[in-house]
Design a protein that fits this description.
The chain has 16 helices and 14 strands. The protein has 458 residues and is an alpha/beta fold.
């Protein structure tokens, strides 16, 4: 969950910076096609850049200098009972509440999207349709405003227009169709489904719609007189049905459109267009590139490993990512190790697939407790499949924060490995194992023990 929140934060920063640049530099420029692709590209890149991990300089073998030493944590055998004894209150966590809220928002947004799409399809099937050179003309009888969507031009034939006015509006909608603006509209609609909670996505959509209208106006003005076209635009403001999946003549801000018409013959200064390049590079290096390793630091690490004469000395050195295997004060769960065992026992479930297949065995889950105590980089390094690996990783990723490990008085990252045994046993034997494990733990806290997840065959 923490990784997801960080991803949303980084994406938001990218979106905000790109959008701010657009508002400050591009939004009042007549470079409509450039502005359009800038908005499309940056809205997409903002969600991709935080996912990229591009190394700038790889340390030669330093990352593996820590060798194969692993830090096994001591864990209590845990019994996973069947569904009848499941503690359902353990499912009410803030992570699950957020997940439920997000999924509900996605489903609601998807429903609205499908509803509008269905309305367009119904309008095509219900009304008279004629074929034109590059599109199909649908007479909506007032059911839909004059608009366009992909290769369909929806014409409200109940409007009181002169033939000249009708020609101007159709020229505007034809421009939308020729320039394929509907693809942009549907792209933004899909983006809103998955990021319905993000206000910047709606600002991007609004900016993109404005650009569409400016571009369509500029195209229509090549065939129409600017004065009569502007007069038509101001004479009749759209006051009918709103439909967000189409482009229509009155969709954008009228006064701004008229202002942009006067800039049609002007050109955007080239330097303003090129300014987007350093902005992109800055965000790329900030969010997509691994921190550049300092060569002297790598040399120092190599020297330290060369000078270490024993395995114990090497274990206390960090790798190139400054992750330690052994530190002076090892990380500990907040609330103590027993509370952490209880968390594992309450949240881990024996996967149904594994129980049906009779899968048993040990899953080794590796993770890093960072300098803030967060459990990160959780991965199964040796598993048994059938959902057991994923279940073990899921529970560790959702685990509460620990107290970080410290080395020379400084909080540091520590890599750890947890062995979790999945066993299809039950009854008294399980309880005996649990008691035995607890007793062992209490008597000797330095013993290494793996966690045992016990399930019952369905």
């Amino acid at each position: 969950m923490n990784h997801l929140l960080i991803y949303v934060l980084e994406s938001s920063i990218c979106l905000g910076v790109f959008y701010l640049f657009y508002v400050m530099v591009l939004h009042d420029q007549p470079s409509h096609q450039y502005n359009r692709f800038y908005l499309l590209a940056t809205s997409c890149l903002s969600f991709i850049l935080p996912l990229l991990k591009v190394p700038i300089l790889l340390g030669e073998g330093v990352g593996n200098m820590a060798g194969t030493y692993q830090n096994y944590i001591l864990l209590d055998p845990t019994v996973l009972s069947d569904a009848k004894s499941m503690d359902w209150t353990s499912l009410i966590t803030w992570q699950n509440v957020l997940l439920l809220l997000y999924v509900s928002g996605v489903l609601l947004s998807l429903t609205l999207f499908l509803k509008q799409s269905t309305r367009l399809v119904r309008a095509v099937k219900k009304n008279r349709v004629t074929s034109r050179k590059d599109y199909r003309l649908v007479y909506t009888q007032g059911e839909l405003p004059t608009s366009s969507c992909f290769s369909y031009l929806f014409w409200d034939n109940t409007q009181q227009l002169t033939s000249k006015e009708a020609e101007q509006i159709i020229a505007h909608e034809e421009a939308h169709i020729r320039q394929k603006h509907s693809y942009d509209v549907f792209y933004m609609a899909i983006l809103k489904i998955f990021f319905w909670f993000h206000p910047l996505v709606y600002l991007y959509e609004k900016a993109l719609i404005d650009v569409h209208e400016f571009a369509a106006d500029a195209s229509a003005l090549r065939q129409q007189h600017p004065g009569s076209y502007a007069k038509l635009l101001t004479r009749k403001l759209f006051d009918g049905l709103q439909l967000s999946l189409v482009n229509h003549f009155y969709k954008s801000r009228t006064l701004k459109r008229i202002k942009m018409m006067h800039l049609t013959n002007q050109k955007t200064p080239r330097y303003k267009l090129l300014l987007a390049i350093p902005l992109f590079l800055a965000l790329f290096f900030t969010f997509s590139c691994e921190p550049e390793e300092d060569i002297s630091k790598l040399d120092e690490l190599k020297s330290q490993y060369d000078q270490a004469t024993t395995a114990e000395e090497r274990m206390q050195l960090s790798d190139a990512d400054e992750v330690y295997m052994v530190v002076e004060n090892q990380p500990e769960p907040e609330g103590g190790i027993k509370e952490f065992y209880q968390y594992i026992a309450q949240n881990m479930k024996y996967p149904l697939q594994a129980r049906q297949m009779g899968i048993e065995g040990k899953v080794f889950v590796q993770f890093v407790v960072d300098e803030y105590g967060e459990i990160t980089e959780v991965q199964s390094i040796k598993g048994i499949g059938a959902g057991c690996d994923a279940e073990a990783v899921r529970v560790l990723e959702s685990a509460p924060a620990w107290n970080p490990g410290t080395q020379k008085g400084k909080a540091v990252k520590v890599r750890m490995v947890m062995p979790i045994t999945f066993s299809l046993e039950g009854g008294n034997k399980v309880e005996e194992k649990k008691v035995e494990g607890l007793s062992k733990l209490e008597n000797d806290k330095n013993n290494l023990e793996e966690i045992v997840a016990v399930g019952y065959k369905p």
